[in-house]
Amino acid sequence: MTQNGIECCDSICVHEELLQKVNAHMPKEEELYDLAELFKVFGDSTRIRILFVLFEAEVCVCDLAEALQMTQSAVSHQLKILKQAKLVKNRRAGKSIFYSLADDHVRAIIGQGLEHIEE
Q: For 29, how many CA atoms within 13 A lie in the half-sphere containing its CB?
């Protein structure tokens, strides 16, 4: 049976055992919301480009702006979003602020995404 171009079951038959198993492992609604928000952060190619620069080295905002051919203000705006999502961290060294990946999970998330689109 097809509805709106999507294949559907021919009859309604709820499989209670499967639903119990699924519901037992379903994260809480708040966790699902947080996960969706995290993936929204990855939905901007500028932020992805920043992360790729940070894969290679810890860099200051000036270097990021130069590498990406953007203003420091525009880069700082994107870094704020990445920092709020706990994807990057920063440290001060004199008058410069250096950014780096928050942890190895960031590299793994991007790596798995790349693998997926290259299949």
A: 0
pTM of the model: 0.83
- Domain regions of the chain by residue span: 13-118
The rounded distance, in Å, linking the Cα atoms of 93 and 7 is 58
**Arch. (CATH architecture) of 13-118:** Orthogonal Bundle (1.10)
Q: Tell me which residue of 55, 46, 61, 70 sits closest to 98, measured CA to CA.
A: 61
**Cα-only R_g, the chain:** 20
Q: How far from the centroid of its chain's Cα atoms is residue 75's Cα?
A: 17
Q: CA 1 to CA 24: how far, in whole Å?
A: 30
Residue whose pair of structure tokens reads 């996960």 in the numeric block: 35
Tokens 């942890």, located at residue: 103
CB 60 within 8 A of CB 96: yes
Neighbours of 8 (CB within 10 A): 10
**What is the tens place of the pLDDT at every residue in 14-56?**
999 999 999 999 999 999 999 999 999 999 999 999 999 999 9
